[in-house]
Amino acid sequence: MKTSIATISISGTLVEKLSAIASRGYDAVEIFENDLLSAAQSAKEIGAICRDLGLEVAMLQPFRDYEGLSPDLRARAEERMRRKFAVMEDLGTDLILLCSNCSPHAVGERDVLLEDLARIAGIAGEHDKRLAYEALAWGTHINDHRDAWALVRDVDHPALGLTLDSFHSLSRNIPSASIGDIRADKLFIVQWADAPILQMDLLNWSRHFRCMPGQGDFPLVEFGAQLRRIGYDGYWSLEIFNDRFRAGSASSVARDGIRGLKVLHDQSGIALRRAAELPAPVAPQGVEFIEFAASHAEAEEFGRIFHALGFAPVGRHRSKDVVRWQQGGINLVINSEPEGLAHSFDMVHGGSVCALGLTVDDQQGAIDRAAALDIDRFAQSVAPDEWQIPALRGVGGSLFYLVDGATRDAMWAEEFPHALEQAKQDGLLTSVDHIAQTMQYEEFLGWLLYYTSLFDFTKTPQLEIADPMGIVYSQAVESRAGSVAGAGKPLRFTLNGSMAANALSTRFLHNYFGAGVQHIAFACDDIFAAAAKAKDAGLPFLAVGPNYYADLEARFGLDADLVARMAEHNIMYDRDDNGEYFQFYSRAVAKRIFFEVVQRRGYDAYGAANASVRLSAQAAHRDPVDF
Ligand SMILES: O=C(O)c1ccc(O)c(O)c1
Ligand SMILES: [Mg+2]
């Protein structure tokens, strides 16, 4: 696959964009004319910079509104085009993108369009240049790639070919099977964009909501499979108009694009029963441990909450200031070492989650997949006899340790030989249900792609949740149901981000100095027993107001006694076609991280209906200086 990206897709000045693109290993770049117009360098200098960076210039774009014009306007457009040829010469590309005409004055008679396209192709040919004709989804007459292809085919001039752009085709639900009619040698370039399914006009949808392959909802794999079936071997070029990306980090967005393209190319081949190009997605069996970085004072604070939730400190590390807490299948590790990653984390964030241990069957496969997707590995020096667990960088610089499923018991026994208390036999919490991470709104799609490309995860639709101080966006990534060994429970993460300056997730980012784990939900089989026990043990509960329960009773027709018991323990409830959900929350430790206990009865979601009630309850505790 030859990779490319349009400069419009990322933030910065043109030269900053080019260096970010080159640093992420793209083969080529589409130069967007607006970026060139506002650049401090001449087209010739930009061409030279591209060459120095090792980037081909795949094309210059766009050229607008040509076919179907009146003769005088057409002559002016041809003059404009000749000037572009000179710019292309300077940039070092022979290709320019020609958008289908969007002018209300353009005529749509086929004979006229054929004649105009033949004419401009002739002019281009005389200058050794080529045109890639693209059906914009909102083109006045040509807005379907099948019509654009029919014109290109019938003009049959070597200087005229087609652009396919997945956004324009899939936003109009044009069947990808129609790509089978296109001749690969006439397909000059393919532009890629994913997008969320939205009900809005095509132009605004395209200009603001495109995203990297894998970040949206479009059936891109089928599109890619059709391209590969016809033998297309030109550029796979990203063209992503997205407000968040323009405000984000050029280098991260460029990296996400490569990641999305690689996975897409691989999946497109697999759909055609071709050999996989990437190591298989990682399918973790579950969360083996959650590691907290904490000073001794913070460790005491966490310890109080862990005790109240029914955990016991069961072991001390053989050489480090690290304690293992356990209950059911859950391991929490508090790391108070005076140096190393945990210590750095504690210095930056205060008491926080610095690592998650995931149990995997194939450590090396996971490492290889991560390497192929440009996910950083982490290693810190360990004593010669110490257990070396490979680790990958995740949200906010935290780690995913890849724990080998076959040796995990030996790992615990060897690393934590100093028994402290016995694990409680009557513990009520069984496993980690989900882990909620909060991040900058601009980074949200990047982390979404991280999870869905590294792991064998699917994503749920994005939800908008009302915080009293603004809207929070929330989306879950989860292992495919049933793919997790053992209890058959999926591994679940929820991602949260907000643009609102004082919403809880933004307050978290400020207090925490960065992205990270904001809450952890534990599963249990009897939420009333778990809540009663936690209450007796002194867990600071998040209080839910009385109106919630009055509404709950009415909304679901629940038994008044049941609702009264829920109210007594601040338990919230949700129900859908699959089943029922019960949940309660602790107050936040150090105003940052908090804990949730859930019981699922067939239910597969996260109680989104309750999230705004929870956010309101939490907002009541925010610092007065925060307004
Ligand atoms: O939104 C546009 O105008 C526009 C321009 C060029 C493209 O390739 C495209 O897909 C859209
Ligand atoms: Mg396009």
From TrEMBL:
Report keywords, A-Z: Isomerase, Lyase, Metal-binding, Pyruvate
Q: Which pathway does this chain act in?
A: Aromatic compound metabolism; 3,4-dihydroxybenzoate biosynthesis
The record ties this protein, via SUPFAM superfamilies, to: Glyoxalase/Bleomycin resistance protein/Dihydroxybiphenyl dioxygenase, Xylose isomerase-like
Reaction(s) catalysed by this chain's protein: 3-dehydroshikimate = 3,4-dihydroxybenzoate + H2O
Q: What is its EC number?
A: 4.2.1.118
Q: Which organism is it from?
A: Novosphingobium umbonatum
Specify whether Transmembrane is a keyword of the entry. Answer: no
The record's top EC class is lyase
Which PROSITE patterns does this entry report, sorted A to Z?
VOC
Q: Which GO terms describe its biological process?
A: 3,4-dihydroxybenzoate biosynthetic process
Q: Name one GO molecular function term.
A: isomerase activity
Q: At which positions is Mg(2+) bound?
A: 434, 519, 596
**Know the name of this protein?**
3-dehydroshikimate dehydratase
Q: Does the keyword Metal-binding apply?
A: yes
Record's PANTHER family?
HYDROXYPYRUVATE ISOMERASE (PTHR12110), XYLOSE ISOMERASE-LIKE TIM BARREL DOMAIN-CONTAINING PROTEIN (PTHR12110:SF21)
Please describe what this protein does.
Answer: Catalyzes the conversion of 3-dehydroshikimate to protocatechuate (3,4-dihydroxybenzoate), a common intermediate of quinate and shikimate degradation pathways.
